[in-house]
DNA sequence: GTGGTCTAGACCACC
DNA sequence: GTGGTCTAGACCACG
């Protein structure tokens, strides 16, 4: 997998790494159980401090997305959320409430809003389909 | 109108104020042109510094939701967004993208997600109907 | 003379009054020794509080531009600055320094800058010529 | 580079910092891409709160004069204004209008005013020539 | 009585 | 070690 950093954007490096790895995992670009680039490798490739990569990996591990074992590397764990379904729905519900209030201020009604959701979802799936797993690697 | 702060939550006070005023405005709890609680008043009621309220009001003003004038007060402006439709859709689109990624991590598919949106929307409308404007509590 | 207030602009009312009276005086619209509208009169005309007009007149008086005497009214005093020439030049010099630094950041050189000054000055004189003294009065 | 604060003057500290840094930048005292004193450093040196310096730097950033990145520092960006020529002239025009009105109140005519501008400009260029870049004082 | 500005202390995010 | 955010106190401007 390939990670790119945009230093101009305000986003911190470690967050950009996390996002891209999450996205790659969601896309199926990285298979379950497969190893990620090593900390040292990724740090060199991106020309950033190893601490920054380590921080990103650490947070991914604490989210249960990857697991690391000394001397072996870092691996993608099987996708599964730690929350029960009603908790998940409650979390999504809060995001949705904010979305609805914003849509209301923008004078956009329900049917239009749902149209937008469907449209965005389709584009998400389309991009997902276009990425074949395990394509890119450098160094 | 009534604002409540939850100090336990990580969310900063000024953001909680913004959200609740936006919500109250969307609900029709505050009529257009009507004045919001004065900065001092709300600050005392919430037992926080005036500047924190002032910051919230200032941001609401920069979003075009309220307008303030020295010596007079802060007023809810006529609901009308300054953005063109495509801009509004783009802003909502970003929120939706975040929602979709989160839903994906939670293994919730499109139909279920849209069901959630509809359900939340209905509840929003129901609550909105229950609030008759101009029913103010006093302190 | 006619004073107009723009409530939308951020500028406070009393400053708008001061500016317009100064400008009218510089333009010769008000003759030396002539009386200005009374505080009560101007306040009614502009539909603002008399304190606001009084504040404006008070500041004009402290700048030595008008003089007031109880029961008679407020009069424009003979134009003359209280400062000696070198002091005046020093004050202008500071404004000019700021102008030069700004022009430098804008990559505008001396000749262009002086062209701008001349152009603006001519327009100033033109507007001044167009106003005949003692034209407008209301009520 | 050296910043001095004049607490007696009515001007707020953050504005004094902005002016002096703009001046130093225009003088070539700070080279392009070079880092400014860190927020903490300057705050200690001036014996003011870090936030006051941060505010000054933040405004300089929003003017496009410096750029900052967390954990690294604040840097002078390549001199290049983001505005088109007519916009720049309009901005300078407003400053010039104020200058002309002030000069008028001081009974100083155009030729004298332009003489002052030229004189100040020459002094600006002379001082600029005297400062060789990269000559830094330390504390 | 309004709202706005300036400075500050404590804490957080980042590298 | 960097810069950024949140809250606050004192003071100012305004009507």
Oligomer: homotetramer
How would you classify the helix and strand content of chain A by structural class? mainly alpha
Quick one: overall form of chain A?
A: globular
**Roughly how many Å is the radius of gyration of chain A?**
18 Å
Count of domain modules of chain A: 2
Please outline the helices and strands.
The structure is a homotetramer of 139-residue chains.
Chain A: H1 13-27, H2 39-46, H3 50-62, E1 66-69, E2 73-76, H4 85-105, H5 110-130
Helix pairs in contact in A: 1-3, 2-3
Chain B binds a DNA duplex (15 and 15 nucleotides) through helix 3.
Give your account of this protein's structure.
The structure is a homotetramer of 139-residue chains. Chain A is mainly α. Chain A folds into two domains: 13-76, Arc Repressor Mutant, subunit A (Orthogonal Bundle), CATH 1.10.10.10; 85-138. The first copy, chain A, is built from five helices and two strands. Chain A has helices spanning 13-27, 39-46, 50-62, 85-105, 110-130, and strands at 66-69, 73-76. In chain A, helix 2 crosses helix 3 (50-62). Chain A is globular and about 55 Å long. Mean pLDDT of chain A is 80; it is low at 132-139. Chains in contact: A-B, C-D. Chains A and B meet through helix 1, helix 4 and helix 5 of A and helix 1, helix 4 and helix 5 of B. The structure holds a DNA duplex (15 and 15 nucleotides).
């Amino acid at each position: 997998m390939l990670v790119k950093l945009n230093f101009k954007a305000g986003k911190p490096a470690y967050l950009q790494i996390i996002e891209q790895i999450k996205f790659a995992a969601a896309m199926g670009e990285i298979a379950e159980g497969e190893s990620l680039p090593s900390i040292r490798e990724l740090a060199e490739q991106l020309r950033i401090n190893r601490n920054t990569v380590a921080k990103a990996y650490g947070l991914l591990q604490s989210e249960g997305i990857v697991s690391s074992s000394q001397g072996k590397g870092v691996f993608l764990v099987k996708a599964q959320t730690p929350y029960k379904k009603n908790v998940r729905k409650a979390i999504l519900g809060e995001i949705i409430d904010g979305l609805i209030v914003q849509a209301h201020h923008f004078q956009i009604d329900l049917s239009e809003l749902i149209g937008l959701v469907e449209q965005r979802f389709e584009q998400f799936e389309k991009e997902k389909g276009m990425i074949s797993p395990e394509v890119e690697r450098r160094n």
